[in-house]
């Protein structure tokens, strides 16, 4: 009987704790038990925990399709998964939901907030030599209007169709990057735009950048028309030329690891999300 009383007291205390102590924070997390069907994991791996947060475009879509598309995205974003040509077909809805929903924008915001905080803390030499290197596609400009019509990366890259889109010069700015760009200009750090787009797209690219609100950059560097080099080699080579010309690369931002790898990388690098395609 004593143990029953003890149990009742414990349950009452627990109920009171849940009623009062959980607070707004706990309710916002919206933790709930997965259903029995959802708990069947067909890869034989044991569950690590029973609760999962229902936030953004994460768990539920992945579980519904019985594939961890969020895990695939993690491997992509950490550069663990390389040389892939298309996103897994089963992840088209997941990636589409991620890109079109708030998750992509909030991931971008987290990166940009940190980049701005870093830039604001820099001590400039006062000679106007500090530059920040920006990539274009999925960095200054967003090609979501194109990719939304082409399966968010589930279709193989189509040079003809994508070139037509680029020549249309209609891509919107990625608003988070634009915020960083404007802040850097105000701080006196000069943007240098460095892209794997080739010289035959210079006019359309400059027109698109202007239409998207990007003005006052120091340089717009495109890949020479007939040179066959990988992105890492081309972009690190161009950064080396900048340093040799006396510029100090205080920051470097892009959506691909090939924007950021290869010395000189820049004093600090910032990786924006991009689960739609891979450029090595
Ligand atoms: Mg890019």
Automatic annotation (TrEMBL):
Entry keyword annotation includes Cell wall biogenesis/degradation: no
Signal peptide positions (record): 1-26
Top-level division of the source organism's lineage: Eukaryota
GO molecular function: acid phosphatase activity
Pfam families documented for this protein: Acid_phosphat_B (PF03767)
UniProt keyword terms in alphabetical order: Signal
PANTHER family from the UniProt entry: ACID PHOSPHATASE 1 (PTHR31284:SF28), ACID PHOSPHATASE-LIKE PROTEIN (PTHR31284)
NCBIfam families reported for this sequence: plant-AP (TIGR01675)
The protein's name: Acid phosphatase
Organism listed in the record: Panicum hallii var. hallii
